[in-house]
Every structure is written in structure tokens, then in C-alpha cells.
């Protein structure tokens, strides 16, 4: 669903639309909520914060809601935060899912509460770093102070380039193993690139103590190099299957020697380019998310 469709949904439900986060939010009939698309096509998260009585709500309390809905597919409860997953092709279907939830809440005695404290009152939608939360003002201010302290500690850390390089190297090997596994099943997939990007960048950040633009550049270099090595190992494993007496390391050396001597296997360049395209597409998503997380890390606001 694009921005125009989300804006139309917000208008239809009497809610607001945040263009930066691509989510619909507000309050309907006394219940605060927000709606955002998931990574899966035509699937959405409808988020509330509710409780019934003084006791914690059991996770299976919403089974009847899901069972009786044609749009809602599953639910997830974390403390007071309720996430309803909806499969909807139209705004009308999403609006129907919201109304079904509201009717269910009223029938079962669920009230609108802060997801942090569980207390009712003036509850709104807030952004704290990369998280969207349904909170009271008091809980927001308390969590904001903690986030500010965490950011100060993070910023005051000295980046370890050497540690980051080691982390990126280890992470890229893990990502490369995922790509190689997928390649051995005769596939190339964006998922492998996502694994490569996430593991490499996360590896740099974990051992480098923080992530900078230099860290991202170093991570990209490792992604490019390891993806090339994965392609070479893929051909080496093909040789091992054809010649069972050979070991994979001798086959790997033979493939490299053959390539550097100009003896190129059929479709070699096509397969390598295809691998880079799919890996690059996935890695780009991981890099974009990492940069977005760095930018949003300092953001605290009421939507």
C-alpha cells in the first residue's frame, strides 16, 4: 500500500497519517491505535494497548476475535501491547478489521491503557528511537530520559576500527555461508543478501562499538569480496560433485587458477553478476535500515 492509499485509509477512519514512518495513527472510540504495513505484501499490523481488569491478559484471550474474522490472521500480545495481523487487499477490509477489534474490546471489557504502565488516561502514539509505542505522557518522558542516556553512552564510545574489521569479516562469512547454502539449492535470493548485509554490519557494530559511515564502507568491501569467494566455492563444490576424489580446497584452487588463466566456465560471468544483483538488493535493504536506525536513534516525539 503506497502513501496515497494509507492517507485515504487515515481519512476513512478519521485518523492521522505520518508520512515519515508510513503509518496511520490516532484514536477511535476511546482506543489509541496505529496501523503499519509489514514486509509481506498486503499484510498489516494493527496495534493497540489494552487490558481487562487488574490481571495480565492471557495471550489466547484474542483467539475468538481472530477465529471470527475474515481479515485478521493472528495476534501477538506483549505485556499490554496487542498486535493484530491483518491480510487485506482494500481499505474497506482494514477498516472492517479495526471495527471488529473495537467491538470485541467493548464486549470483553478491555480498556485503553499505556503499554508501559498499564494505566488508563491520556494515551497517545509516540516514537522513541526506532520504536513506536502507545504511552501516557509520564511513561514517554521517563523512557525518553533513558533513551537520551543510552545515546550519550553510545556517542561517547570510541569506535574501534580494528575490532569493527574483525566483526565485519566474521559477519560476512556468516552471511556468505547463507548465500552459499541457497546457491547449492540452485537458487539466488534477496534473502541471502539481507543476511549478508545484516550480519556484516551488525558484526562491525558489535566489535567496533559503534557504526559510522566508515564502518558501513568497510562492511560493503567485505560483502563484495566474500560474495565473490562464495561464487568461487559454489563452482568448487560443483567440481567435487563431478570428481568425488577431489577435496573442496583443491577444487577451489583449481577454479581460481582456471579463472585467472582466462579459462572461464559457461555462464560464469552471468551467474556472478546475477549473484551480485540479488545479494546487492538484499544488502542495500540492510544498509538502508542500518542508516535509518542511526538517524532515528535520537528521535523522541509524540505523533
TrEMBL record:
Keywords: Membrane, Transmembrane, Transmembrane helix. The chain crosses the membrane at residues 161-182, 188-207, 214-233, 268-287. This is YkoY family integral membrane protein. It comes from Streptococcus sanguinis SK1087.
Amino acid at each position: 500500500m503506497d502513501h496515497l492509499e494509507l492517507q485515504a485509509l487515515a481519512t476513512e477512519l478519521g485518523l492521522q497519517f505520518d508520512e515519515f514512518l508510513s503509518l496511520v495513527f490516532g484514536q477511535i472510540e476511546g482506543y489509541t491505535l496505529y496501523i503499519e504495513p509489514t514486509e509481506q505484501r498486503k499484510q498489516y499490523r494493527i496495534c493497540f494497548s489494552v487490558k481487562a481488569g487488574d490481571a495480565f491478559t492471557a495471550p489466547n484471550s484474542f483467539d475468538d476475535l481472530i477465529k471470527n474474522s475474515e481479515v485478521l490472521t493472528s495476534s501477538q500480545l506483549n505485556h499490554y501491547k496487542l498486535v493484530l495481523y491483518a491480510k487485506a487487499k482494500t481499505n474497506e477490509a482494514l477498516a472492517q478489521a479495526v471495527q471488529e477489534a473495537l467491538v470485541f474490546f467493548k464486549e470483553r471489557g478491555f480498556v485503553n491503557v499505556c503499554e508501559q504502565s498499564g494505566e488508563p488516561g491520556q494515551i497517545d502514539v509516540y516514537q522513541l528511537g526506532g520504536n513506536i509505542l502507545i504511552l501516557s505522557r509520564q511513561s514517554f518522558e521517563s523512557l525518553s530520559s533513558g533513551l537520551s542516556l543510552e545515546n550519550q553512552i553510545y556517542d561517547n564510545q570510541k569506535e574501534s576500527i580494528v575490532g569493527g574489521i574483525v566483526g565485519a569479516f566474521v559477519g560476512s562469512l556468516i552471511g556468505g555461508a547463507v548465500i552459499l547454502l541457497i546457491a547449492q539449492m540452485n537458487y539466488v535470493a534477496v534473502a541471502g543478501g539481507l543476511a549478508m548485509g545484516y550480519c556484516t554490519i551488525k558484526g562491525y557494530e558489535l566489535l567496533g562499538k559503534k557504526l559510522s559511515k566508515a564502518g558501513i564502507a568497510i562492511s560493503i568491501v567485505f560483502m563484495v569480496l566474500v560474495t565473490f569467494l562464495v561464487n568461487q566455492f559454489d563452482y568448487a563444490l560443483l567440481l567435487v560433485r563431478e570428481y568425488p576424489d577431489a577435496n573442496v580446497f583443491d577444487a577451489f584452487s583449481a577454479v581460481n587458477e582456471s579463472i585467472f588463466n582466462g579459462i572461464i566456465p559457461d555462464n560464469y560471468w552471468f551467474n556472478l553478476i546475477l549473484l551480485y544483483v540479488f545479494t546487492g538488493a538484499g544488502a542495500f535493504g540492510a544498509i538502508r535500515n542500518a542508516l535509518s536506525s542511526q538517524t532515528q536513534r535520537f528521535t523522541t516525539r509524540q505523533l
